[in-house]
Design a protein that fits this description.
four-stranded mixed beta sheet, 6 helices, about 25% helix, OMP_bac, OmpA-like, cell outer membrane
């Protein structure tokens, strides 16, 4: 398969810009502190994953997989901006932050690279196979390696990009059972539940959260006289108001799942959102932000 045709197929899920650029960033989004942003650009899509895998091209035709905390952003750029202008600015900024540029290429010399954008966004064929750029940079540091990939192309005359930041770290073990919940509640009156995750910027509980919710239900069933508060917590990406509202919706979703799926009486469970007002770690690292994104259950 020709590289250009392959590119179009793999880059088939980004936001297609058929209307004027958004006047402001989407709610809950924020630039990644390792990267920053091009002046005048706007965040059109944003997602974070506590732990995931990403495919990166370190050389033309050479793709490797890394795992860690993943942040993806898509940007739209001012009308007068060129691809080369954005690329050179990103390269200079990354090098200034200690990154090594391992690959910087265009459609003529990128080769058959499997760009890691196919699962991000929701509109077809945003990329122009005859006009695109790709940059991949990496940095080693005391907190582990970090990788940044930048893919840019043009859609209807507008420059768009996907920026993917992967911070390598070991996967945190998140499983907890009813006995451990009992122990934590007995010792401190609260328990942090990291096995409950949500779609980015949503209160939709992901399917992989079911085992942790089941253990919460088992604990509550074994302690029928106990009343609790379910509290949602976020990291500091986005405004205070946004995160307070989002964490409140997430806490309500957990209480609803316990009532609907496991028959726990709703009257036993209050729920509230704390946003980023009660961090348990710094928000300046991926690991710290992951610790701050949590659900807690507190004995009343």
């Amino acid at each position: 398969m020709a590289p250009m045709i392959r590119l179009l197929r793999l880059a088939s899920a980004f936001v297609c810009l058929t209307a004027p650029a958004l006047a402001q960033d989407i709610a809950g989004s924020a630039d990644h502190p390792l990267v920053g942003r091009f002046d005048g650009s706007v965040i059109r899509a944003y997602e974070t994953r506590e732990f995931d895998e990403v495919h990166l091209a370190r050389a033309p035709g050479e793709v490797s997989t890394v795992e860690g905390a993943v942040t993806r952003l898509s940007y739209a750029y001012p009308a007068e901006t060129s691809l080369v202008q954005v690329v050179r600015n990103f390269e200079q900024a990354l090098e200034g932050r200690g990154f090594d540029i391992l690959l910087s290429c265009d459609q003529a010399d990128c080769g058959r690279i499997s760009y890691d954008v196919e699962q991000f966004g929701n509109s077809p064929a945003w990329a122009d196979a005859f006009n695109y750029r790709y940059v991949m940079a990496t940095r080693d540091g005391p907190e582990g390696a970090a990788h940044v990939s930048l893919f840019l192309s043009v859609n209807n005359g507008n420059v768009l990009s996907v920026v993917t930041v992967t911070e390598e770290e070991a996967m945190a073990f998140r499983m907890i059972d009813a006995a451990e919940i009992q122990s934590a509640i007995g010792e401190t009156g609260r328990v942090a539940l990291y096995g409950i995750t949500f779609d980015t910027d949503q209160a939709t509980i992901r399917a992989e959260s079911a085992p942790t919710i089941a253990e919460m239900a088992a604990f509550l069933a074994a302690n029928p006289d106990l009343q609790v508060v379910i509290v949602g917590h976020t990291d500091n990406q986005g405004t205070m108001e946004y995160n307070l509202a989002l964490s409140a919706r997430r806490a309500a979703a957990v209480a609803d799942a316990l009532a609907r799926t496991h028959g726990i009486a709703a009257a036993r469970m209050a729920h509230a959102g704390a946003g980023f007002l009660a961090p348990v770690a710094v928000n300046t690292t991926a690991e710290g932000r992951a610790l701050n994104r949590r659900v807690e259950m507190i004995a009343r």
